[in-house]
């Protein structure tokens, strides 16, 4: 009885976690880990909690992992699958980083002040906060039409805030996809940040009690969205 109770407890904790294993392009999900770097221990679905660790970039060990690279059009809608679903409350943010010349998306580690934000979505306010992606099995966003053509890493980040009232309580669910943008523009992305480096554990969007008193505003962590 004791053993089965603890297995059940473990199963319910694990099932509350989630992972972003595939890109969604032209409305269709690609294979899991085909274009998304498979991080060490992905089957745990567990979060990263240390904003100062290298794992905050692309998840555990994934700055040195490799996947295939998917060609997508600038201005098109791209997405990630969320498995089994985004069960926790919190914001969704998406960043891109242009692969430097001489490197490829398959080999580059994503280091430096290279990441710009292309999507950031906080809560809706009311009697209590509601989060648009909570419960979602897919998330989507637009590749800015103005991004220059070329290879990029695209980093999805859902931050679970259900136990974030003290520093380090926020849980980061992260994956990095590899894309090759075609038909791009002449934009010059701004608000470039590094991971780690972009966040502090005490940032107001990361250390917050989302339940009581119910917040009346919310400040996304990181730079402003660059939309081109
Ligand atoms: C990216 O797209 C360009 C233009 O279609 C193509 O020439 C290049 O081979 C592609 N690179 C990758 C890695 O898919």
Automatic annotation (TrEMBL):
It is an enzyme of class 1 (oxidoreductase). Coiled coil: none annotated. InterPro entries: AA9, AA9_LPMO. Transmembrane segments: none annotated. Keywords: Carbohydrate metabolism, Cellulose degradation, Copper, Disulfide bond, Glycoprotein, Metal-binding, Monooxygenase, Oxidoreductase, Polysaccharide degradation, Secreted, Signal. CDD domains: LPMO_AA9. Residues 1-16 form the signal peptide. One of its GO terms (biological process) is cellulose catabolic process. Residues 17-218 form the Auxiliary Activity family 9 catalytic domain. It is found in: Secreted. Its EC number is 1.14.99.56. GO terms for cellular component: extracellular region. Belongs to the polysaccharide monooxygenase AA9 family. This is lytic cellulose monooxygenase (C4-dehydrogenating).
């Amino acid at each position: 009885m004791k053993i089965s109770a603890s297995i059940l407890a473990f199963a319910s904790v694990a099932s509350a976690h989630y992972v972003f294993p595939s890109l969604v392009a032209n409305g269709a999900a690609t294979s899991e880990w085909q274009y998304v770097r498979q991080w060490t221990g992905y089957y745990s679905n567990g979060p990263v909690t240390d904003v100062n660790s290298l794992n905050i970039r692309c998840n555990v060990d994934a700055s040195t992992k490799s996947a295939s690279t998917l060609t997508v059009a600038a201005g098109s809608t791209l997405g990630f699958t969320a498995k089994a679903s985004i069960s926790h409350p919190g914001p969704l943010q998406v960043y891109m980083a242009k692969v430097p010349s001489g490197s490829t998306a398959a080999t580059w580690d994503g280091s430096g002040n290279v990441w710009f934000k292309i999507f950031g979505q906080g809560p809706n306010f009311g009697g209590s906060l509601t989060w648009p992606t909570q419960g979602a099995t897919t998330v989507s966003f637009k590749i800015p039409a103005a991004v220059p053509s070329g290879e990029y890493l695209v980093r999805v980040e859902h931050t679970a805030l259900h136990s974030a009232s003290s520093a380090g309580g926020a849980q980061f669910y992260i994956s990095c996809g590899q894309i090759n943008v075609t038909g791009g523009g002449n934009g010059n992305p701004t608000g470039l940040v590094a991971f780690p480096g972009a966040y502090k554990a005490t940032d107001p969007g990361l250390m917050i009690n989302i339940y009581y008193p119910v917040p009346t505003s919310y400040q996304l962590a990181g730079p402003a969205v660059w939309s081109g």
